[in-house]
Amino acid sequence: MTTKTESLLTVEDLEALPDDDNIYELIEGELIVSSAPTVMHQRVIMNLAKEIANYLDRTPIGEVLPTPGVIFDKHNAVIPDIVFLTNEQLEQVGSEPHIKLAPALAVEVVSPGRANAQRDRVRKLRVYGKFGVGEYWIADPEARTVEIYRPAGGALALAATVGGDEEITSPLLPGFACKASRVFG
């Protein structure tokens, strides 16, 4: 009996792809191709990044970055919509072109479509948990909610889903509070 095996793609393969309007990521060696995000997607990123940046202006414990490249290992390289790195993590990253450690916080904004939701809620959740991301938020513009995942038993588990006038908080950002409604405009 013969079985067909497919080789896993690596970061080196990813770097050889064309520089076009697509977003290329690797999740467990599989190439994930996304098109440019929608205006609503970008608006949610900007709103949430601005809220975190305003907090960090008052409490300078790290930096918030939109759409950085994060390389976990040779088979997992993603582009979260937002990351928060602590000052200690920033020192480790230094002047490298990509982040090569698990961010304190990773945020994904769900794009329309079942495949996009599955990628963020299942595949990226698993990868972020496996590599030790401190906290993972999934902002869903359609539901107008933010799901907050925190470490539990070696993985990330849903800790809260907030919407409307409920506040997004995090032990990673002491004193930070933002109403979910502000994220979605």
Order of helices and strands: HEEHEEEEHEHEEEEEH
CATH architecture: Alpha-Beta Complex
CATH class: Alpha Beta
Largest sheet: 6 strands, mixed
Q: Which consecutive residue ranges, at least 5 long each, have pLDDT under 50?
A: 1-5
Overall mean pLDDT: 93
Q: How much helix is in the residues?
A: 25-40%
Task: State the end-to-end CA separation.
Answer: 58 Å
Strand content: 25-35%
Task: Spell out the key features of this protein.
tt1808, chain A; 32% strand; 185 residues; disordered N terminus; alpha+beta; 5 helices; 6-stranded mixed β-sheet; two-stranded antiparallel sheet
Describe the structure.
The chain is α+β, with helices and mostly antiparallel strands and 185 residues long. 29% of the residues lie in helices and 32% in strands. The strands form four sheets. The protein has a six-stranded mixed sheet, with helices on both faces. It has a two-stranded antiparallel sheet with strand order 1-2. A two-stranded antiparallel sheet has the order 4-5.
